[in-house]
């Protein structure tokens, strides 16, 4: 009976959020969860999302009927263009199939489930994740029965990319492995390959006939430029890879709780491509039906309203620049405060890293000490959410870091 069910550990991130909420100290700072905050540490509803929300609320024809199994077609079509680029050969040649999912998590899950069921059946399969990666990758892949290993990614010495380690491990991986890649703004490190490094990574993946699986949760949020943040995926498509993409709208639209996301499967150019994609789509539809029947409507409607209207789209881009711009300002401010204080160590990685997160290099012991002494909450691996910093607390945080590093 259920009496035999063992206690599972609490999710570390959501546990951290709960501890922050319980803390009654007025100085407390939340650098844990990966959600954007404005300069007053408040959640920010993107103005363009508010506008789309108003449009939807005033639409007399809007109802609460089921969406199709693959989701809202205007949304999935616009999502393809967003991630692959409007003139993508893959779209023109009908080599892409897309399903709306429960945000990025659901897209990663649907992709993993599909691969578990159909990819290289009958042979030993192995997925490779960056070390470190978004912790949920491990759970999602193990829940569908796909074994995994990791490839080196973060160099503790340079606090940048361990490019040689990454490439040589991907090179040595068994042929046909699934290689999970963060398209931009790597979580948790904030470290991305350069375009030249991406080209080399693509070369090795091709040589070993690996299958690239892109996780894109921060397009536009990282650099403020959608094409730039989508560059790696578009390059792989240009190179003719068969691949899949898990796309999230949580961060770049601030639609966290609405769970808007999309899964894309792209096959290589061939005379057979269109029919391959049709068969893949038919199987994905069955998986989706058994998992969620059909995806939630509201978040996808909001994103779709914006993505399909040129004026709203331009306004969204401005909102993205505002979020990424504030985060970049906080990177500069934190680095210069630490350098002003003469805090031991180098701090250039704070501004070299990109996106929501920075891997500070603080040890678990230092993280716990800062939590206890200064009421600053960050994950044990020393990751901070840059969005939790603002002009009111960045100096306070820098001083707390300075203190613990000197102890
Ligand atoms: N992948 C990565 C790398 C992420 O950082 C996130 C967000 N934390 C996700 C996927 C998916 O998040 P969500 O399900 O909220 O879209």
From TrEMBL:
Its EC number is 2.6.1.1. One of its GO terms (cellular component) is cytosol. Its cofactor is pyridoxal 5'-phosphate. Residues 27-400 form the Aminotransferase class I/classII large domain. InterPro entries: Aminotransferase_I/II_large, Asp_trans, NHTrfase_class1_PyrdxlP-BS, PyrdxlP-dep_Trfase, PyrdxlP-dep_Trfase_major, PyrdxlP-dep_Trfase_small. PANTHER family: ASPARTATE AMINOTRANSFERASE, GLUTAMATE OXALOACETATE TRANSAMINASE 1, ISOFORM B. Pfam families: Aminotran_1_2 (PF00155). Residues 313-340 form a coiled coil. It comes from the Eukaryota. NCBIfam families: PRK09257.1 (NF006719). It catalyses: L-aspartate + 2-oxoglutarate = oxaloacetate + L-glutamate. Homodimer. Keywords: Aminotransferase, Coiled coil, Pyridoxal phosphate, Transferase. Signal peptide: none annotated. In eukaryotes there are cytoplasmic, mitochondrial and chloroplastic isozymes. Belongs to the class-I pyridoxal-phosphate-dependent aminotransferase family. One of its GO terms (biological process) is aspartate biosynthetic process. This is Aspartate aminotransferase.
